[in-house]
Amino acid sequence: MPQTYQQYLQEHREQHLKELFDFLKIPSISSLSEYKEDVRNAAEWLKAELEKTGMEHAEVMKTKGHPVVYADWLHADGKPTVLIYGHYDVQPVDPLNLWESDPFQPEIRDDKIYARGVSDDKGQIFMHVKAIDAFLQTDGKLPVNIKVLFEGEEEIGSPHLPAFVEEHKDLLAADLIVISDTGMPEKDKPTICYGLRGLCGLQINVKGATSDLHSGEYGGGVQNAATALVELLASFHDRDGKVLVEGFYDKVEELTAEEKEAFAKLQVDEEKLRKQLGVPELFGEKGYSYTERTSVRPTLEINGMQSGFTGEGLKTVLPSEAFAKMTCRLVPKQDPYEILELLKKHIHAHTPKGVTVTVTEFDKGYPYVTPLDHPAIQAAGRAYEKVYQVPVTYTRGGGSIPIVAAFDNILKLPVVLMGFALPTENAHAPNEHFHLENFGKGLETICAYWNELQTLIFS
Amino acid sequence: MPQTYQQYLQEHREQHLKELFDFLKIPSISSLSEYKEDVRNAAEWLKAELEKTGMEHAEVMKTKGHPVVYADWLHADGKPTVLIYGHYDVQPVDPLNLWESDPFQPEIRDDKIYARGVSDDKGQIFMHVKAIDAFLQTDGKLPVNIKVLFEGEEEIGSPHLPAFVEEHKDLLAADLIVISDTGMPEKDKPTICYGLRGLCGLQINVKGATSDLHSGEYGGGVQNAATALVELLASFHDRDGKVLVEGFYDKVEELTAEEKEAFAKLQVDEEKLRKQLGVPELFGEKGYSYTERTSVRPTLEINGMQSGFTGEGLKTVLPSEAFAKMTCRLVPKQDPYEILELLKKHIHAHTPKGVTVTVTEFDKGYPYVTPLDHPAIQAAGRAYEKVYQVPVTYTRGGGSIPIVAAFDNILKLPVVLMGFALPTENAHAPNEHFHLENFGKGLETICAYWNELQTLIFS
């Protein structure tokens, strides 16, 4: 009897982990120019892996920024075609001193793999490569047609991907898109994420005097750039977590009755979460539950700010400059371009006296939702339930994958988000990790999903 | 005919500048522990210079921190005894990249000496040493008895000096104290500073979650440490520059009628100042002139703040920490200890939900005023007018020299502040400098002052 994919995966577990470690060692940090070569190396590694697996037409394809990796296997006649999207780039690692091990020297501790990018997103796309490998090695064929599209700029907002997708529309034509770059709330609680928040970002620079001033000589005489910045930043929210930018909430869609029911099933143990996060209390927009606030309500967050003297001790200086970086998470039907205009209008109206303010825009990504009752969504639910042996829940994700809405707009395909990461795995923070248990179960779930999909017919 | 002090000073100008440059080259930064040896070296250099001049009992005296330099010349029987105070320590230099020349390699450009500490305070105390030198070399004696007390901790709030002064009360007994660590508004507008603002400082640390969080996953669910900090900081002022801390202004003394008249004579060209500082407009506490705001009104300033990601580009992180450093300039009769308690009470009452706040206190210094009509003040006015050939103005300084109030409390002496620095000389900032013209005129003014003082009788 030929080997099953489960047997193959179990037998080759050690080898697969070794290969994953090789992938994780490449510091493919897309946001910092000094890692440009490493990003390319990661693309080349991935292409070679796909070729070894048996995928065809594997190629590292140019863009105006970091390259895209493509490959396909299109011999499942009459079966659906799945486009798998993921990213091989990773977040920066700072603050480095908070990592317990080298972010680019993967380690296994307590049944978790520790490395930058293992959860977001290399571990997850690697599982897709190995799932393909498992079928081709055991069955000689895939249950469905597969195309992979792995980009290197997701962490910087996928600036060149929409143009790439537009340019290669025919190459990328498929019946649905599957993305594994999200998560489940807890280890044994599989979730299908059927929506994502959008994103927009900007930097505010405040300028006072030509240079820093002596706070005795000039203090009281001119506006302090730091004071002006905090006044401006404080104008963005009320004390109950609501964003005060005029028009911000105008286009926000309320949940459907069905969604409200599904959300009620998402039990979050708030006290447990509070302790785990180490905060005195959870906090956010008044009138909404924790789950709603982190998935279906928009936010405006300060990601970083700096002004004046921040070294040891005291320096009686009146800062002449101050800046803050901010991002919004958006929900349907907010438009990131429109929100940025509203933010700029608010900044303009609230700029304190005595300083000048400049605004630089960053990334923009649209929010996204696939209808809950789509057959591809329901098939994914069945795949999870088969492997995890518990009912799957349906959730809308708090994070953003800007390209999802671009796929929707350009390729007009349903998107299925099947993630295996956990919120505790420190994505974007020090000591990022991935549970080995989900590595194993994720591989099987993906394989189960291809089996489920082969029976569906897409119009 | 023996040489006059004016002739001596002119003849030895080049040599004196060379000696000053040697003094300036020593990076005596008191706030940074890695310069501890340099601070000591500056003290030793100063002691040697005083000995060369002919001062007696020159000594580098221990304190719990950086040492104090003492010396005296007490042979002017029946004449007043002057205690000259100054400091040989300097501010840190960051941001270094904004300096046009090495802060510790003095240069003369456009008739100005550029170096850290040349204006605040080494250039000024050096002039005192050379004035003593001029008298002893030309006349063999000083017109008054002189004691010098040069400390190494003024830039960090003189923490050990009050105890030192208390311990050496008899050694430091005198009829008045003269301090050259302040300035005049413009090059040809000599000013006697008869009051100083006090100082207190603190650092606010805000803590949210245990670590930085992914802003998609958690944004909206917990308080953002940066947002909490800006809310707290914004609560300190109204939009018209007034400090909102309860009780802050309670003990502030209004100006006397005589002072109001003297202040009216201090014509500040606000448009010229605005252009010079490069601000869109001057700004401060509503209802008070620029001069009042920078000298007789108290302030609360943010000196620095930082949170989250401040590097290149964007990072969608929800910061778990944020801090700000703040200082107040105080006026009579505000008490720095009391003000710190009021600030802490305000912080406590305004701490936003979902974070914890810790406060660390820094320096404390009392505000100070010598009556305008004191004979020593009037004598200093005559000395300035003799050299500068224009009427002197009387002003209250914006800056703080914390030890002044300690001198008042412990030694019970009138303090005469005769400064020669200019507000444009970048004290506490990059490219600090000192005008050669004031170097020359300052030397002569000090000499003229000793001559004026020798006829006064102190009870």
Write structural notes for this entry.
The structure is a homodimer of 459-residue chains. Chain A contains 13 helices and 18 strands. In chain A, a hairpin with a 2-residue loop joins strand 4 (107-109) and strand 5 (112-114). Chain A has 2 domains: 5-196 and 367-453, 3-Layer(aba) Sandwich (Aminopeptidase), CATH 3.40.630.10; 198-252 and 298-362, Alpha-Beta Plaits (2-Layer Sandwich), CATH 3.30.70. Helix content of chain A is 32%, strand content 22%. The interface between A and B is large, with 96 and 96 residues. Strand 11 of chain A pairs antiparallel with strand 11 of chain B, so a sheet runs across the interface. Chains A, B: It comes from Weizmannia acidilactici. Chains A, B: This is Peptidase M20. Chains A, B: One of its GO terms (molecular function) is metal ion binding.
Topology (elements, then pairings):
The structure is a homodimer of 459-residue chains.
Chain A: H1 5-11, H2 13-24, H3 36-53, E1 56-61, E2 68-73, E3 81-87, E4 107-109, E5 112-114, H4 122-138, E6 145-151, H5 161-167, E7 176-179, E8 191-196, E9 198-207, E10 213-214, H6 225-234, H7 257-264, H8 270-277, H9 290-293, E11 299-308, E12 317-318, E13 321-330, H10 336-350, E14 356-365, E15 368-369, H11 375-388, E16 393-396, H12 403-411, E17 415-418, E18 433-435, H13 436-453
Helix pairs in contact in A: 1-4, 1-13, 2-4, 4-13, 5-12, 11-13
Helix content of chain A: 25-40%
Q: What is the end-to-end distance of chain A?
A: 36 Å
The CATH homologous superfamily of the largest domain in chain A is termed: Zn peptidases
Distinct helical segment count of chain A: 13
Average pLDDT confidence of chain A is 92
